[in-house]
Amino acid sequence: MVTNRIVIIPTYNEKENIEAIVRKVFSLDTAFDILIIEDNSPDGTAAIVKKLQNEFSQLHIVERKGKLGLGTAYITGFKWALERKYEYVFEMDADFSHNPEDLVHLYKACSEKGGDMAIGSRYVSGVNVVNWPMGRVLMSYFASKYVRFVTGMKIHDATAGFKCYTRKVLETINLDNIRFKGYAFQIEMKFTTWKFGFNIIEVPIIFTDRTQGTSKMSGGIFNEAVWGVIKMKLRSFFTKYNR
C-alpha cells in the first residue's frame, strides 16, 4: 500500500518495545509507513527491526554509528522523508508513552482541520500524564509554562515529542540551522514553525510513562532547555522568517 504518511521512531535499547510498537502502528485503519532511526543499540534492537522488514515492506531503518542525540536523529529522518516525497511526517517514541492510535488524530488535525503542525499535547486540557512521579510532572508542566513566557508562543505543551509535520513546514525550516540536539530540540522546532507563521494545532492526548525499558531523560537535558530557550529567543531577533 502506497501512503504519504511516515512515522519516525528513534531507538536506542528498545528491544522490549520495538516489535509491539511496529505491529500496533501497522494495525491502524489509517496506513502509515515507519522509519526507525537506530543508534547502534547494543541490545539488538536493529536485528528485530530487520527481521520485521521481511514481513512489512513499509518498515524502513537508518542505522547510525552511536548515540548522536534525539535532534539529529529526527533531522536525519526528516531529510530521508522529504527525499521520498512524504506529505505528513510524524515523531513518536518507541515506548508506548505515545498511544499509536493518536497518530490518526494528529493526521486529521493537519489533513482536515488546516494544521501545518499538530502536537500531541499533555497539557491543553488539564494535565494528562499517567505513571510519572509528581516531581517530573511538575518539571515538565512548568517547563512549558516557562517556554510560553520567554517565547510568547501560545502552546501549552512546548516540550512535547509527539507531533505531525506537513511537508511544507519541514521544507521551509532550514533543518541544518536547528541548533539543539537534546530535549530543547522539540522546543526549537515548535518555535521556528511558529515564527514562520504556520498554523499549530494542539491535540489532547494522554501520556503514559514507559513500562518496558529505561527512560533516556536526565537533569542535564532540562538544563539545556532552560538556558537554550533564552539563547534561542535572543537569536530570533536577528533572524528573518520569510516564506
From TrEMBL:
SUPFAM superfamilies hit by this protein: Nucleotide-diphospho-sugar transferases (SSF53448)
Top-rank lineage group of the source organism: Bacteria
Gene Ontology CC: one annotated term: membrane
Assigned keywords, A-Z: Glycosyltransferase, Transferase
Gene3D superfamilies listed in its UniProt record: Spore Coat Polysaccharide Biosynthesis Protein SpsA, Chain A
Any single GO BP term: glycolipid biosynthetic process
Single GO molecular function: dolichyl-phosphate beta-D-mannosyltransferase activity
Any coiled-coil regions, as ranges: none
Boundaries of every Glycosyltransferase 2-like domain copy: 7-172
Any Pfam family: Glycos_transf_2
Protein family (similarity comment): Belongs to the glycosyltransferase 2 family.
UniProt protein name: Glycosyltransferase
Organism: Labilibaculum euxinus
